[in-house]
Design a protein that fits this description.
mainly beta, 24 strands, globular
C-alpha cells in the first residue's frame, strides 16, 4: 500500500518538475521582452521654445533643429551646423556611426551628412525615382539602405544609396496594410514598424509581409525590441507581440508628454522645455 502511494507521489513530482522546467524559459523570455518598471533618469536637457524638432542617433547623441540650424549634443563633442540652402529639416536618421540621413519634406530632398553635420554632397533626386511627395523615411538594418515612403502614390521603396538602386518597392502600401492617416516608419532588429496617427501599428518582416498588428490608444509611440513603448494620458506603457500592455512609468500630471524617442537602451521624453533621458533596464 505504501508502495502505491509512493509511486503516485513520485509521478506527481516528476510532472511538477517538468512543468516548472518548461515554464522557466517562457518566464525568462517574457522578462527579456519587457522593460522593468524601475526606471532611472540620468539627465534632463533644457531646450528652447524655438526648437522645431529633435532627433537622436545610434550613439545617444541629441540633435536639436531650429529652422536651418542643427545643434548636436553628445560625445565626443558638441557642434552647431547651419545649412542655409535648406528651408527645413524634418528628419535625421542614422545610417551608421559616421553618417546621417537629413530629410526636408518642404524641399523634397534627402542628403547624407557626416558626424560633424557637414553635407557630403550625396543627395538623392527623388523625381528620378518617380516620387512626388515623400512624407516619411527610415534607416534600414541592412547596410547602405534606407526606406522612403511616397504619400501621393502610397508607395514604399527600399533604396541602396551606394549603388543608387531600388532594392524593394510596394505600391498601394497603406491600402494593403489597411491603414489610414499619416504614417511614420522605423526599422529595428525585429522588423519594419509602420505607425499610423489613427492608433494603429503594423510590424512587417524583411519582405514587407505583415507579421503583427497593434491597435492601441496612444499619444506617441516608438518601437523597442519586440514591442512598442508608448504614452497615453501621461503614463508610459510597453506592449509586445506575446502579452498585453504593462505600465512602466508615470509622468507628472502637471506636464504633457510631447514626444518620445528610443536610442539604444535610453528613452528620451520631451516635456515642457526639456528632454528627460531614462535608462531602460
Amino acid at each position: 500500500m505504501i508502495g502505491i502511494y509512493w509511486k503516485k507521489f513520485y509521478v506527481l513530482n516528476v510532472r511538477a518538475f517538468l512543468c516548472i522546467t518548461m515554464l522557466v524559459p517562457l518566464y525568462n523570455q517574457a522578462q527579456k521582452n519587457e522593460p522593468s518598471k524601475e526606471w532611472r533618469k540620468i539627465q534632463s536637457i533644457p531646450i528652447s521654445s524655438e526648437v522645431d524638432a529633435w532627433f537622436t542617433d545610434l550613439q545617444q547623441t541629441l540633435y536639436l533643429v531650429n529652422k536651418d540650424e542643427i545643434t548636436k549634443i553628445g560625445s565626443p563633442f558638441n557642434t552647431v551646423q547651419s545649412i542655409k540652402s535648406w528651408q527645413s529639416i524634418d528628419g535625421i536618421e542614422p545610417i551608421n556611426p559616421f553618417k546621417l540621413l537629413l530629410f526636408s519634406a518642404s524641399q523634397q530632398q534627402i542628403c547624407i551628412a557626416d558626424n560633424t553635420l557637414a553635407l557630403t554632397g550625396d543627395c538623392f533626386p527623388l523625381e528620378a525615382l518617380e516620387i512626388a511627395n515623400v512624407t516619411a523615411i527610415s534607416s534600414s538594418k541592412r547596410p547602405d539602405m534606407f526606406w522612403i515612403y511616397d504619400e501621393v502614390n502610397s508607395t514604399i521603396l527600399l533604396y541602396n544609396y551606394l549603388t543608387k538602386t531600388i532594392v524593394q518597392s510596394l505600391y498601394n502600401f497603406k491600402g494593403l496594410l489597411g491603414l489610414k492617416g499619416k504614417i511614420t516608419l522605423k526599422e529595428n532588429e525585429t522588423g519594419l514598424w509602420v505607425i499610423s496617427d489613427r492608433n494603429e501599428i503594423v510590424l512587417l518582416d524583411d519582405y514587407l509581409n505583415k507579421v503583427y498588428t497593434f491597435q492601441l490608444a496612444f499619444d506617441h509611440a516608438v518601437p523597442y525590441k519586440n514591442g512598442i513603448l508608448y504614452s497615453d494620458q501621461n503614463t508610459l506603457y510597453f506592449t509586445n507581440r506575446y502579452d498585453g500592455s504593462k505600465a512602466v512609468h508615470k509622468i507628472s500630471t502637471q506636464e504633457t508628454i510631447k514626444k518620445i524617442h528610443v536610442s539604444g537602451n535610453q528613452l528620451y521624453i520631451e516635456l515642457d522645455q526639456r528632454i528627460d533621458v531614462f535608462i531602460i533596464p
